[in-house]
Design goal:
Length: 386
């Protein structure tokens, strides 16, 4: 029997299509899990490949868990607003048969960002964007800080911005990720362990790179690399449970309450780190002096622990890189959040799903984060990285 070669080619192509995955997401961290959830919700068949299902070195569980809308760029402000909207509805939108009462242990103490004279003008411009986006932030002179936060020494602070309406705060990163992942699985997504060395290994209609710090290993033209940050756990005789997550932009040090203790982040970061050993010297040399100067009660701090984690840092401008990669027919990506992945995950997962399923953004237009911006080296700096 003679079989026409064209027929064989068509049959082979049809078989390949039948065995091809619909959507494959590389990276099952917070961005991958959120994207899987939103795509599965739209009926897409999603497979998530994660090389370390313990997430031991992932960015999200080693963060302070903050969510805020205090940024310079409007897109980041709007993504922060949606984060709060999504998080507050977790008990309803992420409940599953196995977990009917999901939570992320949200604490709504707000954020307080303090600026010296050198950053004041930039912050005043940022406040115009806050107003345009209805962020609900409040701005005061540095000299007025003591009236609202009596424990703070305002020396060297020109202006400060804060929220007191429960729109900012922090959550438990592991609980949030677990709730997203569980709901995505219930909706049909599949999470498997595996390591992808090249996107060419994947046969799928749509590929999403959510590889975080390791994006550059898969997409060499994207300047997103691991940036090591250290967080210290400290104890103080004076406990202020209502304290907001506070960032002192004059020193780069930031902190918040955690149980009966506090967490405080070092202002120094390291590229090309060999391990995740905390930079212990930073505490004595930088963090403690900065904390004690800003909050005199912190003179009596005692170091009780610490850890280090990676930011997926976009070395171009500290802004996310999200969208379809122009060099591929079917590759999308989301990375470079530079410490904002946890809080931006809901908005990014929804945005990518809109782009993949409709061809354009339907809610928050984040086309400013497009891959082309990075390839063409068009800097769009986000200055407020904690």
């Amino acid at each position: 029997m003679v079989v026409d070669q064209n027929f064989l080619n068509i049959a082979e192509s049809y078989i390949i299509i039948l065995i091809m995955d619909d959507v494959v997401i590389v990276g099952g961290g917070i961005i991958g899990a959120s994207t899987a959830y939103f795509l599965a919700k739209e009926g897409r068949k999603v497979k998530v490949i994660e090389r370390d299902p313990t997430y031991k070195n992932a960015s999200f569980p080693l963060s302070l868990g903050g969510f805020r809308r205090q940024f310079f760029q409007k897109e980041n402000i709007l993504l922060g607003k949606f984060a709060r909207e999504f998080i507050i509805n977790i008990p309803e939108v992420l409940k599953t048969e196995k977990n009917p009462n999901p939570t992320a242990s949200m604490v709504t103490n707000g954020y307080l960002l303090m600026f010296g004279p050198e950053h004041a003008e930039e912050q005043y411009r940022a406040l115009e964007n806050h107003k345009a986006c209805d962020a609900g932030t409040k701005n005061i002179k540095g000299s007025e800080l003591n009236k609202i936060f009596p424990y703070i020494n305002s020396d060297g602070i020109e202006t400060a911005t804060y929220t007191d309406n429960k729109t900012e705060g922090w959550i438990d990163p592991f609980m949030f990720h677990g709730a997203l992942k569980s709901k995505a699985i219930e909706l049909g997504a599949e999470f498997i362990k595996g390591e992808i060395k090249s996107l060419n290994e994947i046969k799928a209609k749509i590929i999403v790179s959510a590889a975080g710090c390791w994006t550059n290993e898969l997409l060499e033209d994207i300047p997103v690399v691991p940036q090591k940050h250290t967080v210290f756990r400290v104890k103080c005789p004076k406990h202020i449970p209502e304290m907001p997550l506070t960032g002192d932009l004059t020193t780069g040090v930031y902190w918040r309450p955690e149980g009966k203790e506090y967490l405080a982040g070092s202002p120094l970061s390291v590229f090309d780190a060999n391990d995740l050993e905390p930079a212990w010297n930073d505490f004595e040399e930088l963090v403690w002096p900065a904390l004690a100067k800003r909050i005199p009660a912190f003179e009596e701090l005692k170091l009780t622990g610490g850890w280090a984690g990676y930011y997926d840092c976009n070395k171009l401008d500290n802004n996310a890189v999200v969208g379809k990669h122009p060099k591929y027919d079917n590759v999308y990506m989301a990375s470079g959040f530079t410490g904002r992945g946890l809080m931006q995950a809901p908005g990014i997962g929804r945005a990518l799903t809109e782009l993949i399923t409709t061809g354009s953004y339907q809610t928050i237009d984040i086309s400013a984060f497009a891959v082309e911006r990075v390839l063409n080296k068009k800097v769009r700096h986000e200055p407020y990285v904690l």
